[in-house]
Amino acid sequence: MILAAGRGERLRPLTDHTPKPLLLAGNKPLIVHLIQQLVSAGFNEIVINHAHLGEQFPAVLGDGHQWHANLTYSAENNGGLETAGGIIHALPILGSAPFLVVNGDIWTDYPFRKLRHALADNKDCHLILTHNPAHHPDGDFALTQAGLLDLTGDKKYTYSGIGVYHPRLFAGLDDRKRPLKPLLLEAIATQRATGAYFDGTWSDIGTVERLEALNRHLLSRNTSSA
């Protein structure tokens, strides 16, 4: 599942007319970079949720056949359901097995294939953590030696927006507007949340400056390889 329902306030005025994941970087939408990476890692069945200007997603992306993907859309009304609400709303499409969730506004070279069997049978979520960017210096979660997520470790890392979830994490919850963090905190408290650190390229494209920097990087790379 690619999360694409956010309003993108910090990217206004660009997002007044275009959803954040459809903004161009290197001559293609941010979300297309992710779709291509996921397909190359073996994830062909992809659910995309949307809210703000949501009709643009199927209009731009279609059914995904051009990337050898099968795209299904999960529409959210009234401004979106936040992360947990959006996932719960899409559960009838996602099914009963663990599934990968990726934020639609990140840029990374993370090897998604590593997550095809990353969730242990007795765990509810497995999150990929990364370096703390300048705008989030304190991080989110620590890791124990056993690979469990922890809130009290000396070194905290930033949640990358990449995670694997079991549907039981959301059991019994309706699809109203609902954040994800309280569910993660409950899973951490009961030792049902694991994680891993990724030290490769990662950035959340949450501001105009970061989008412009990524665009320059990709265009220069494309020029160099031409």
**What do we call the CATH homologous superfamily?**
Spore Coat Polysaccharide Biosynthesis Protein SpsA, Chain A
Radius of gyration over alpha carbons?
17 Å
Report the top-level CATH class: Alpha Beta
Which whole number gives the mean pLDDT?
93
Side by side, the strands of the main sheet go: 5-4-1-6-11-8-12
Distance between the termini: 33 Å
- Please name the CATH topology: Spore Coat Polysaccharide Biosynthesis Protein SpsA, Chain A
The total of helices stands at 5
Principal-axis shape: globular
Secondary-structure class: alpha/beta
Share of β-strand residues: 15-25%
Poorly predicted regions are none
Can you tell me the CATH architecture?
A: Alpha-Beta Complex
N-to-C SSE series?
Answer: EEEHEHEHEEEEEEHEEH
Count of folded domains: 1
- The number of E-state strands comes to 13
The portion of residues assigned to helices is 25-40%
The major beta sheet can be summarized as: 7 strands, mixed
Protein name: Glucose-1-phosphate thymidylyltransferase
EC number: 2.7.7.24
Domain Nucleotidyl transferase: 1-128
Pfam families: NTP_transferase
